[in-house]
Specification:
about 600 residues, three-stranded antiparallel beta sheet
Amino acid sequence: MTPRIEDYALIGDLQTAALVGRNGSVDWLCLPRFDSGACFAALLGDEDNGHWRIAPKGADTCTRRAYVDDTLVLETFWETRTGTVKVIDFMPQRDQEPDVMRIVEGVSGTVDMTSVIRLRFDFGSIVPWMRRSQGHRVAVAGPDSAWLRSEPPVKTWGQQFSTCSSFSVSAGERVAFVLTWHPSHSPRPDLVDPYEALENTLSDWSDWSARCKYQGPYREAVIRSLITLKALTFGPTGGIVAAPTTSLPEEIGGVRNWDYRFCWLRDSTLTLGALLSAGYVQEAAAWRDWLLRAVAGDPADLQIMYGLAGERRLPESELPWLRGYENSAPVRIGNAAVRQRQLDVYGEVIDSLRLARDAGLDDKPHAWSLQLSLLGFLESTWREPDEGLWEIRGQRRHFVHSKVMAWVAADRAVRSLEEDPSLSGDADRWRAMRDAVHREVCEKGYDPVRNTFTQSYGSRELDAATLLIARTGFLPPDDPRVIGTVDAVRDELDSEGLVRRYSTDGTSVDGLPGGEGAFLACSFWLADALRMTGRTDEATELFERLLALRNDVGLLAEEYDTAGMRQLGNFPQAFSHIGLVGTAVALTEERTAEDTARDDAAG
């Protein structure tokens, strides 16, 4: 059977990441970067598209697994009739080339083990030439090369275009496998001691996790989400990918399958907020700096997403040799939405840079002039329709969220000028724009009969993005229109108590057939909105239900199928974990404030 999405765990080295199943198989790994071709692509096809399984002979799934404390080192335990063994999976932070290390350690008794590795470069399409060299099995095809060795050496042979190993481990014994990628034209990569690398990796992650300042009741969930966000960071540039995967479906058997191995501007404010709230100022500054580099240039050319280093060309194509996860085709690489117009990103960029300034991050000399340039372009375009936050592939519309974020752009500029008179700019001009946007949204984007903001001007459809209206400051939380919108979204976009992004039933908003699951980030937004409108108990109940949807190692995908009771979409999803951190911090701060108020009253 195909593993469910939630059956996977994540390991990574801050430049790429792998997914390891409960069956002991690495079914997804792109090398050398998140956006490179996959050498293990069984996740989107079958074993012939590349995988690496280490497990006891005859075993199907593990007994249990967990990360080692607050790290990204995975331990998988197998209890058999002859003994117990664990497999330690990790990727050390690289000096030069990426390594995947898998250490098999005997816990009790003696267990017979097998390793089967099928390397398939270019997303499972290329079978490499295999040879032996200097104690390694070496796979070469075009620009790619992978070197496999074990320590100590074990019996290894080739079979059906795969490399097989057979060995036994008893209590206290260890066998380490090291897979190293490097350019095929380069000499053999330097040998890395896997046991020393394990200690260094544990130390690196433990030291990083110890910097977390959040100490509330949800610390375990928060620190795991922060570790996941760190793992999705491309270390050399500070960019954070939306997910390490492509084409995991939003509906099993459907066509809503997209490549998320890029960096979205829409996540910028929430990402900065999550990192700063937990004390990760260095990571927030790196993300801010990536943002400034990526968006530099003509404001008219601003994109909604960029590559890991700010690359602009992300052409979309399909891979017909991959059948898709549970036959959910097509499998896509690249993302055509990069060329869409989404006016909300201007507000998100300006809001992010203000948040960074308010948090005390060192200001960049060109940051303010860049914001003025973006705002000047937005001033002349905010009245135009766009594809909106959700990257619809249907007709452009006047999306309410896009207009609200245009208001945010003008509002943050006005506030910055009011607080720092040394900044250049025309405050009166931006106030006029802010007021005009506000007036139009309230006139054209609000349904007075149903007492709710709608998805777009003149539509009856709702949009979970309108849950952010109070959070942005567009209207206060106690405004009846905000409360009405929260109630309407909760009722009309409900999916067994969770929230869909928008309705896909009988509408053509996004231009795509089929439906999708409940969107987890939107469900966290609902919890935030409930809290802000005075319903903290309901917010807490929803938040804790969302925590229960995490898999056994604390990870969340993009969506959740409430009927099938399974995760959907690319995995793990940064947006979901950002939402988790933000809601946990807000609920904890509110609870602390309430306790302080009670103590003051009692005193």
